[in-house]
Amino acid sequence: MLRWLASDQLPPTLGEGCRRPLIGVSEYSSLLQARRLLQQHNIRHLAVFGDDGGLLRLLGFDDIVQGIEHEYLHELNEALRQRDEALQQSRHSLLLADKVFESTMEGIIITDRNGVIQSVNPAFARITGYSREEALGQTPALLKSGKQPPEFYQQLWRSLLRDGRWQGEVVNRRKGGLLYTEHLSITAIRDAAGECLHYVAVFSDITQRKQAEERLHFLANHDALTSLPNRTLFLEKLQGAVERAGLGGQRLALLFIDLDRFKLVNDTLGHYAGDQLLIHIARQLQSRLLPGETVARLGGDEFTLLLEGVGGEAQVAARAQAMLDAITELSGVAGQQMFISASIGISMFPLDGRDADTLLVHADTAMYRAKDGGKNGFQFYTRT
Known about the structure:
Residues 164-218 form the PAC domain. This protein is of the alpha+beta class and 384 residues long. The protein has helices spanning 2-6, 31-41, 61-103, 122-128, 132-135, 150-163, 207-221, 231-248, 262-269, 271-287, 313-328, 356-372, and strands at 24-26, 45-49, 55-60, 107-112, 117-120, 165-173, 179-190, 196-205, 251-259, 293-299, 302-310, 332-333, 336-337, 342-349, 377-380.
């Protein structure tokens, strides 16, 4: 600033109002330093020297005041410019945030610290069926389906209060009553002191994706024709039942059911009639199930029945006969009259095997003995 003041005009005549020696400062000194020298020596003028030691000009108190005013105005203008730029950037950011809020496909809920809804976006209304006016002043419990236990929400709030965020899947209810699954993220908005001001919840409807996943899981574990558990799922259930029976000192029975002369049905009436027969038999077997029993289709015309917690062979024999009766009750399928029967082989845990594979092999062996014995009957596995 002193350099600017020194270059403002040509140096005055040195003889005017000067005394020896000259008291001065470098052109790079601050105005504050110049002011202090004036006050310290009780003088009205101060010399300003250049790099070569030459006198640039004499500086008075009025010059210092003028310099301070100039510097102040310069800094003020710079501060105003920066403020205007910041305001413009803030307006742009707010406009962008508003556009995102209004146009995003995810539903957004903004609540106060007590969970009272203060704002929702259009996607919220599209997903839930509730208008903005219906949601304001309510809490997110407006969407509660009852599918989550109280402990679920207690854990959610613990995470929010501890970590300031929560994320997971929730089953909620639309205004019309239909359930839907959403992926939900909740974040606490805090001030500089760490106090919670708002909660922001962002959610997306993943119902169709969940249904597709569940359908794929069902198809991977169930027979496509009859919807019964398939071999994979049945073996898992059988192994689990074996482990439970071993720990509890209980018995279980495995019935291997094979239709008699099923190939003849396919050959004479066609595969459509054969498929319809399998569907009807699956329904018949399911209709006779008792608690603790599982029926499955292993493939072709083979079915299995798992009986847990059985008492003895007499009880198992009664259940095998009930399955045979259910099958022979069918008098016709697909408009065709026919007599249907089956042969059943039975293995018992722990007598005939202590693992799923062994029990299945022994039940299959007993089934063939039932066929050899004249069909339309059942046989227990014997080692001889």
